[in-house]
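agent> Task received from the user: take the single chain below, predict its 3D structure, and emit structure tokens. No templates, no multimer pairing.
agent> Plan: (1) validate residues, (2) run structure prediction, (3) serialize to tokens, (4) report one or two observations.
agent> Step 1 OK, no nonstandard residues flagged.
tool_call: predict_structure(input=
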Amino acid sequence: MSCPLCTEDGGALIWRGKQLRVIRADEAGFPAFYRVVWNAHVAEFSDLTASQRAHCMDVVVQVEQALRQHLQPTKINLATLGNMVAHLHWHVIARFDWDSHFPAPVWATAQRPRAAQQEDALRERLPALEAQLRRALGS
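)
tool_result: status=success, residues=139
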């Protein structure tokens, strides 16, 4: 059984380090949906050493902080499920009270129609967010 996160980035690559990468996922209705993906194939967070776990969580926090600074979301959702893809990755998702699923999880049933204008306005702000994130992670 092949692992899609071992064979491809899993989305638009924002930054790649020696141990992990940050990608922007292509999730309809959620333009500010990012993933922090461990490069080596491991299934669980507890498979990492203490220093690897600290590094991973530091990157998750940096993604969260960039989302908060640039987008001022209503909430940030963090998740690591791995039920569909058993390769360690964290979801870091900026949520807004206008998004189609809020306050339910992004994987639940939509609560309202998508807000195309707000989604487009959000997408326009992502290049600056991602440039800052690359600078922060590259240092």
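agent> Step 4: summary for the user.
The longest strand covers residues 89-95.
agent> Done.
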